[in-house]
Structures are given as structure tokens and as C-alpha cells.
Amino acid sequence: MRIQDTPEEWPVTATATPFTGNKTSVRTDEVEMPDGSRVNRDYQVHPGSVAILALDEDGRVIVLRQYRHPVRRRLWEIPAGLLDIPGENPLHAAQRELYEEAHVKAEDWRVLIDVYTSPGGSDEAVRIFLAREISAAEGERFEVSEEEADMELARVSLEELVRGALAGELHNTCLAMGALALQAALSGDGIDALRPADASWPARPFAA
């Protein structure tokens, strides 16, 4: 049996935004249940994100280590960033983030996997790309600040990332999902069966 997520929207009888931050906000919706009762649902309103699993010619993935204050951990991650501009093309955003965080470019791009990071409490949608044919970017490195100023970069085998995720040693959502998705693709129909980089994304519609 083939299963598939489907769009649906239950009636919202009232809404409020009790908090607005720099990039995200919190919304409270009064939602009508199928039995006619009404309940409040609080959730983070998020612009969406892109992440990039960049694979070099030796089968290693570009990863970076960054402090994440909410979880009080320094996490290994793959390059990622927000979709700051409404309707922004996610591929263009991913290419920008790969340049800014790893100072490399890629010639071959595919959609690896699309996920909602925490659909019970946030509307954040993330598109994870697979980027191959990696080479150094031209020009000066992008100037970083705050947590990014302390980032550490490395190249690690896909096998080590999968092992670390399954062992409970690596916890970043995009890194774990990306590594496991790529391993599944390699074990299944192969990279050529992945969706093209400009595949539609109903969760975050974009212009070509």
C-alpha cells in the first residue's frame, strides 16, 4: 500500500500572535475539532529552511560544528539556513548557504528529502539537497559572526555519519535525515532516481 500525506485544514475560529521574534513568531489558533469542540493550539511560525548534504569525490560529507544554545550543545551539522525572503527559490538559497558556510560550490544538485522538523509545534519545513561535484568557491570567504564565528569544518564519511546518528552521538535533524536518506537512496534506486533540484515544494511554494 502506498501512503501519502495530504493537505487538510480544520476551521480556525480565532487567532492571535502573542510573540514576534527576529525571524520567527508564536501563534495561537482556536481550532474547531471534528466533534465541534474548540481547542487552542500554540505553534512556532517559521519561514522555512534549506540544508545541504555536500558529498565530495571521496564520498565524504562536509559538516560543521556549531554551538546551539537552546539545547546547550555543540552539534555537528550540515550547512543550512533560513528562507529569509518569502517565495525565495530554495535552490538559490541552498547555493548561497553552501558558499557562506563552507566556501564551496557544487555543479550537481538534487532534492534529497523534504521534512517538517516538528509538526506538532512548528510549521517549519526543510528541504535537504544533495550537492555533488564540489569545488572551492571563488573570492573572499563570507564574513561570519556570533555562533558562526566559532564554527569548525570537517569532511566525514557518510558511513560514519550514519553510524553516529544510530548510536545516539549525532543529533542534528538535517544531518541525521540527510545521511540516512542518502544511504537509503544509494541502497535503493540510486541518486539518479532522486527528484530534480527544482522539484515543486507545496510546503513552501517558490518562483522558478
How would you sum up this structure, described in words?
- This is NUDIX hydrolase.
- Residues 1-22 are annotated as: Disordered.
- It holds the Pfam family NUDIX.
- Helices cover 18% and strands 39% of the residues.
- The protein is α+β, with helices and mostly antiparallel strands and 208 residues long.
- The strands form 3 sheets. It has a 5-stranded mixed sheet, sandwiched between helices. A 3-stranded antiparallel sheet has the order 1-2-3, with no helix packed on it. A 3-stranded antiparallel sheet has the order 6-5-10.
- A hairpin with a 4-residue loop joins strand 5 and strand 6 (73-77).
- Helix 2 (158-166) crosses helix 3 (173-187).
- The longest helix is centred in the last third of the chain and has 15 residues, at 173-187.
- The two termini are 33 Å apart.
